[in-house]
Amino acid sequence: MLGVFVTVFLLSMAVAEHFFNRGNTDMTTEMGKATLPIVYMNVNDEYVNPLHGYTVDMEGSYLRGAITPLKANREVDILIDTYGATISKIGYEVRSKDMNRLIEQTDLDSYQYENDMITATIPIKDLIEPDQEYMLVINVTDGVGKVARYYTRIINKSELYLTDKMSFVKDFSAKTFDREAAAELKVYMETNAEGDNSSYGYVNIHSNFKQLTWGDLQPIVSSEKELYILEIDSLNACIELSYRVFIKNEYYNVKEHFRIRRGSDRMHLMEYERRMNQVFDEDKNVLVNGKILHGILEEKLQWTENSAANIYCFVQQNALYSFNMYNNNLTKVFSFYDKDNNDLRTRYDAHRVKILSVDDAGNIRFMVYGYMDRGNHEGEVGACIYFYDSGLNTVEEEIFFPYTKSFQMLKQDMGALSYINRRNILYLLMEGNVYKVNMESRKVETVAEGLDDNRFVSSVDNSM
Known about the structure:
Helices cover 6% and strands 45% of the residues. The strands form seven sheets. Strands 12, 13, 14, 15, 16 and 17 form a six-stranded antiparallel sheet that branches. A five-stranded antiparallel sheet has the order 3-2-5-9-8, with no helix packed on it. Strand 16 and strand 17 form a beta hairpin. It is mainly beta. It contains three helices and 31 strands.
């Protein structure tokens, strides 16, 4: 049956109807709450391109992210959501795109505080060339002197037709929720046999009308639609929307990607993709007829078992879970977001969770790599190895590898090599170097250096 595609895992043994041991299902690693503000850029009188802060100096030339067009007078207005944090100073740097040349460095003399929000204007001097990209680094200092750095590309370019392009994207997205209004969208779609209409987890420009308009799901938008301008010029734009929807008592993360081109008579939709993934809720009845219901997913579900096949571990939307089939206990092992920590900072998905090993006692060694939303390394990028002790129901940080380039580059490295063998020896590839880590002694050795794509290859499971 076409339509809703539900990812399930067949349990390999009979389970009781009331299979959850609720004694420790709420366990998660002890982490401090997120503390860093979010900085929004005002583009065309709208606050877009939400930026997340870094607590260490990053190699900004690798952080492409969103791009912010400046106003005609080279100013850009910003909004800082402090989430209650005290801010003592705001400054900024303008650098060349490769970060090598400092063009301007200034502290703001004034800004406006209202509740937990700060508004300010950054007046960039007449030292930048038109039509060229630069890197803007906004430095926000809190009450105890900790500095968070926010990176965004900027460009001083006229006639970008921002109103038309941003309005098209928002209008298109809104009309998909109204089937009658969505009839106007048919002219932009290229429905054909290339469209995979088997799952609402993925929709693209080739999907059919029912797929585009959510079928019978009747979703309700339950968060702000955060807008990111990824690329823009006078004709073209790549824009992304990120938000949550509520469908039949479940939450889903949604991302819509648009590549559009301005024509003489109307806007042309060159590419369109919508991805939707259910946020797994361990407190709900997720077992039906011997199956764990993972819901509608676009992402490939990562899961593994121990050798006895009685511990089932899986990662869904950057949250790690463990199900013990012997005692019918489901545990949420790790996640940056939970019911008490659920905002734009803790839901930021510039990281991944990877299961490294599961033993017969249910102990799990796993890795979190990318941007750290909260905890000991909040605002840093890197690869952190954790050990979950199922008997004590605790998570221990074992080792952290810092990284100063983008999550996308780190993700490529971790996909190429991040593997632990039966002797608890971990191998990682980072920036062309292969590291060997003895997880018992925590000793780190460099196995190889200076590798590139022509000098390194690994098997699909990274074991060779």
